[in-house]
Amino acid sequence: MQAEWIVGINPVEAALAEGATRVRELWLERDAHNPRLLALAQQAQQLGIAVQTRPRAALERIAAGARHQGIAAHCVAAPVLDETALPELIAAAGHNTLLLVLDGVTDPHNLGACLRSAAAAGAQAVIVPRDRAAALSPVVRRAAAGGAEHVPLLQVTNLARSLRGLKEAGVWLVGLDGADDVVQTLYALDLRGPLALVLGAEGEGMRRLTREACDHLARIPMIGAMQSLNVSVATGIALFEALRQRSAGAKS
After folding, report:
1. What is the pLDDT of residues 17-76, one digit of tens each?
2. Cβ atoms of 128 and 153 closer than 8 Å
3. In sequence order, which ranges of 126-220 are alpha helices (DSSP H)?
4. DSSP characters over 93-109
5. 153-183: per-residue pLDDT in tens?
């Protein structure tokens, strides 16, 4: 099995929650005094995982630019999922299916933030195209703050085809678009039931085929001087509006 390094307190904590079957070794920065780091090291030792102290330079080398916070875990790499995993995910979630589709988000910090919001909102998966989009990396995992260990990232070879497959499975596609011809707001839509929220890339937005595949297009209303939002901010707004509606529906 392939292995990967996960860095940062929250990502390592999430990996340790999966137990010794995932984490092979833990690296702690030499002379670390942060109580959270020491607690994670103790947890790893209790699980029978080897804990090694390393100089800061060694952690920076494996972090590849991500902020490591003095800790890293060498883990069995999670399997790379693709479109073949979607039917099982949808069948398991049923009426509660909630998916996030990102059409060409290339900034790893944005992807990580979107994964974090998706995990917090209880989404079953985040779907991205395999090409011309950010993939999992230490920077993404660090930005996801543990979210990448809780919600799978699916890389699909043909996004338009995967969207058609979602529709055939009974999942409604709602695309967020700030174009002038989109007048319907996100808050006017019923976001209960099997749903995929679709957002486009930074700056360019959704590609034409992605836009055309959506059942509904909606905008997030804004009244200030700024008329656009960072994709990760828009993702959080959309996911938690869907969660609000679903929670309200469950209580009624």
Report:
1. 877 788 999 999 998 889 999 999 999 999 999 999 999 999 999 887 878 999 999 988
2. yes
3. 138-144, 159-168, 208-213
4. HGGG-EEEEEES---HH
5. 999 999 999 999 999 999 999 999 977 788 8
Beta bridge partners of 6: 73
pTM: 0.81
Structure tokens at 50: 């080897």
Q: Which pair of tokens denotes residue 249?
A: 């529906």
Could you give the dihedral angle defined by the CA atoms of residues 176, 178, 183 and 185, in that order, rounded to the nearest 10 degrees? 40
- Distance between CA atoms of residues 133 and 111, nearest Å: 9
Adjacent-strand bridge partners of 74 = 5, 25
Query: Given the structure tokens 């090694």, which residue do they identify?
Result: 52
Burial 30-57 (b: 16+ CB within 10 A, else e): eebeeeebeebbebbeeeebeeeeeeee
Which amino acid is residue 59, in one-letter code?
L
Q: Strand 71-76 to strand 125-129: parallel, antiparallel, or no bridges (unpaired)?
A: unpaired
